[in-house]
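Checklist before submission:
- one chain only
- standard amino acids only
- sequence pasted in full

Submission:
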Amino acid sequence: MSSTLSIVLGLAFVVLGLTAVMLQAWLWGFPMKGDKSTAPRMWVNVHRLVGLSFVAIYVTMMIFMVPRLWQYQVELPARTVIHAVAAIVIGVLLLTKLAIIRLFPHFSGALPALGLGLLINTVVLGSLSLPYALRAHSISGDTLSPQNLERVRGVLAGLPLEGADPVALATPARLEEGREVLTRKCTVCHDMRTILARPRSGPGWYNVVVRMAEKPIIMGEPLDDRDLPLVTAYLVAITPDMQQSAKVRMKAMNDQAERAAEVADMPAAPAGGPAAADPAKAEALFKTRCTQCHELDEVKAHGGDDEPGWSKVIKRMVEEGAELGEDDARVIVRHLVATYPKST
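Returned file contents:
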């Protein structure tokens, strides 16, 4: 199922669920005449049509969802568990409601409660899935800005994308293809929140995509060689948006940020070692790795510092997920010391 169709069905599912419950609450207020309601026949038929559409979308979505549950190769995230439970409860409530209407009309007094249960679980289902689906589906203006596309080209140029042109990959059309691969193939085995929760560097995304492509898959379409550069380019392109979300979360976790200030100083690099790299290469390494998550203005706002001070900053970044080896970290520290020295 395409990402666009999935989102449309999800939104329609929530709207239909809300409409069905509201109509039921209104129609239930009309008095009975014998064993029939005096509610307007047209609105009764509208309610029935809305209900049938709701059931049709539910069945369609379950056909795609249930096989995915068997594809997860690790324990399901809590959000996915709640999502799956809500979907299963909706099915149970629908079957119960159908059984009462067709077979056990003497239990019809329970129908309003069942309708309310359907509404609650429908809202839970939609709120847990639609925001991340919309986030993955949207390609904002910032993502397609000339500056970001140029950044994507630079990142992709440093990756071993055999036979792929970084310039061609960093275009709106190819990024849309990458988005489609992510939402159609990657979500077979992975929760969307798991994919989008943690920003990574270009090499980090590429390594993840390659590793996922090598894993066996029982159902669905596996990632092929053509998919690898497409989905990598898309993930690199949306990383700034992911970083912004991560910054908001990190700002709310002041205690975790404070503990990083206690990190010990990085040992001094041996003379002539990796830290004594060519200044141009050091600057290129700094821009490639550090600007994945930070604007240059943020670095300038930190102010000048000495080697122990910048070492603490880099170590904190590594603790928060930056993929840096010790040698590269030393090079970046020396570059920062030279570019942003501590004022005397």
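Reviewer check: Residues 3-137 form one domain.
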